Amino acid sequence: MSKKKYTTSLFEVIAEENRRKIIDLIRKRPRSVGELVECTQLSQPGVSKHLRKLREAGLVIIIKDSQKNIYHLNAEPLAEIDNWLEPYRKYWSDKLDMLEQLLDEEE
């Protein structure tokens, strides 16, 4: 898949709590706008606005099912965030190892 340049960073897109909630819902299974409205208790225009941002960021894809649009998660762009977080995982892992060692020494 080719890299696209988006005007809004992925971090900005997922910083919004309702968008993360929508991502979590469609991670479990693909859903229609109506299902997302019901699950999030947001208005239909509100859900559609968030889905547009998620689609522009490449995080959701739409598959037509009869007359409904069904939204599916495309987790590939999240690899960018995962890659960015990798050095911090090592940092915290080292800190937790040091804490564990300190606690063991105190026993």
UniProtKB/TrEMBL annotation:
Pfam families: HTH_5. InterPro entries: ArsR-like_HTH, HTH_ArsR_DNA-bd_dom, HTH_MetalResp_TranReg, WH-like_DNA-bd_sf, WH_DNA-bd_sf. It comes from the Bacteria. Residues 1-93 form the HTH arsR-type domain. SUPFAM superfamilies: Winged helix' DNA-binding domain. Keywords: DNA-binding, Transcription, Transcription regulation. PANTHER family: TRANSCRIPTIONAL REGULATOR, ARSR FAMILY, TRANSCRIPTIONAL REPRESSOR SDPR. NCBIfam families: HTH_metalloreg. This is Metalloregulator ArsR/SmtB family transcription factor.
